[in-house]
Design goal:
This protein is of the alpha/beta class. The protein has 8 helices and 5 strands. The longest helix has 25 residues. The protein binds thymidine-5'-phosphate (TMP).
């Protein structure tokens, strides 16, 4: 039994990740693979509790280090209980966000030391990295307009400058890392979905499916 593939979707809020996660799941399943869909922070009962701690708006200010360590605590639980077992049994894993989000939000938005993130990444993940990362890119203006109607969580309440930096880090990583594919998520939904289909088709072809 060969190991499954690990696909992640990334982007700032308001890029339409959930809709595209559903599409990727449908395409992977149609190609004949068992597909586990999950998300970060979260993906196990304990990691979902940590997500709730992280996203809830609260009076106490949250130290950047607490935030970073909680992200990786949730990730450790998620990898051990969901991601690794699934990949080991040959299932494919489609995950809404992973460690690229930590580089973008904690490293970029919060301005935390990237060296510390690298140390935690190594400690928690070992060699585990996504095989394919689809980065859905939109301008902060479009993203802000799309989330305007929501009850904003602790991250969504950040200022515009925070999301500009998050986007810059994602774009830089997308240029630097081969596993990234960038999709213009500011386009109409059917165009975005056509682009996601193309990315998946190429990836699946590369896997000789
Ligand atoms: P979302 O999954 O609903 O988009 O929200 C999760 C929030 O958590 C989002 O604002 C990004 C943030 N986040 C980080 O700051 N660092 C991380 O490592 C991850 C996975 C998410």
């Amino acid at each position: 039994m060969s190991r499954g593939c690990f696909i992640t979707l990334e982007g700032t809020e308001g890029v339409g990740k959930s809709t595209n996660v559903d599409l990727v799941q449908a395409l992977v399943t149609a190609a004949g693979h068992e597909c586990v869909v999950t998300r970060e922070p979260g993906g196990t009962p304990l990691a979902e509790e940590i997500r709730d701690l992280l996203l809830r708006v609260r009076e106490e200010s949250v130290s950047q280090m607490s935030e970073l360590l909680l992200m990786f605590a949730a990730r450790a639980q998620h990898i051990e209980h969901v991601i690794e077992p699934a990949l080991a049994r040959g299932d494919w894993v489609v995950c809404d966000r992973f460690t690229d989000a930590t580089y973008a939000y904690q490293g970029g938005g919060r301005g935390m030391d990237v060296g510390s993130i690298e140390v935690l990444e190594r400690l928690v993940q070992g060699d585990l990295q996504p095989d394919l990362t689809i980065y859905l890119d939109v301008t902060p203006e479009i993203a802000a307009a799309r989330i305007r109607e929501r009850d904003l969580d602790r991250f969504e309440q950040e200022e515009r400058i925070f999301f500009d930096t998050v986007r810059t880090v994602y774009q830089t990583r997308a240029q630097r890392l081969d596993r990234f594919r960038v999709v213009d998520a500011g386009a109409p939904l059917d165009q975005v979905q056509a682009d996601v289909r193309k990315v998946l088709a190429r990836f699946l072809a590369g896997k000789h499916v």
